[in-house]
TrEMBL record:
Keywords: Cell membrane, Cell shape, Membrane, Transmembrane, Transmembrane helix. Coiled coil: none annotated. PANTHER family: ROD SHAPE-DETERMINING PROTEIN MRED (PTHR37484). The chain crosses the membrane at residues 12-31, 43-66, 78-99, 111-130. GO terms for biological process: regulation of cell shape. Its main location: membrane. Signal peptide: none annotated. One of its GO terms (cellular component) is plasma membrane. This is Rod shape-determining protein MreD. It is a multi-pass membrane protein. The keyword Cell membrane applies. The gene is mreD. It comes from Simplicispira suum.
Length: 172
């Protein structure tokens, strides 16, 4: 693949860092802060990020398993988050080759559509199970997740930007 002009060649992602970031996002989502419809889903952001950058390591199976963890923790309909995360990962898998050509800021509006689709799946499954419509505040969550996409991308790619090893001939 030809690298886009000005884009750095990244080191491989550390699997321990990948798993730790997903575990941290899961823990942050499970904090008892009172889940409101407009709250951004940090696990959704990280699943989409790692699904785009490491599709062989983080896929639909990982997303489905973490979605089941979220369902159990939030006492939601079993499979509601799991289905939404799997739909998100499917959309990321369809578009990840194209999204790599854009900067993180340019990716954000495109990711907003995938985040909105994932939240729509959650709302529709909840409505089919007899839940109530969450109102217009549910539209704020995909927008906030899209705003968090560029800083999350920068933060999660930072460990891969370092030089593999320091030597005396390479200038810092």
């Amino acid at each position: 693949m030809i690298m886009p002009r000005g884009q750095l060649l990244l080191m491989p992602a550390n699997p321990v860092f990948l798993a730790a970031s997903l575990a941290a996002a899961l823990a942050l989502n499970m904090l008892p802060l009172g889940r409101t419809p407009w709250t951004p889903d940090l696990l959704m952001i990280l699943l989409a990020f790692w699904g785009m950058h490491q599709p062989l390591r983080v896929g639909m199976g990982t997303a489905f398993a973490l979605g089941l963890c979220m369902d159990v923790q939030q006492s939601a309909l079993l499979g509601q988050h799991a289905l939404a995360y799997a739909v998100l990962m499917y959309g990321v898998a369809l578009t990840h080759r194209r999204l790599h050509w854009y900067s993180a800021v340019s990716q954000a509006p495109q990711m907003a559509g995938l985040f909105a689709l994932s939240h729509a799946v959650q709302v529709v499954v909840g409505l089919l199970a007899g839940g109530t419509l969450p109102g217009w505040s549910v539209l704020a969550a995909p927008a906030l997740e899209a705003l968090l996409w560029p800083p999350a991308s920068w933060l999660l790619l930072a460990p891969q930007r370092r030089a593999p090893e320091r030597d005396e001939k390479r200038k810092p």
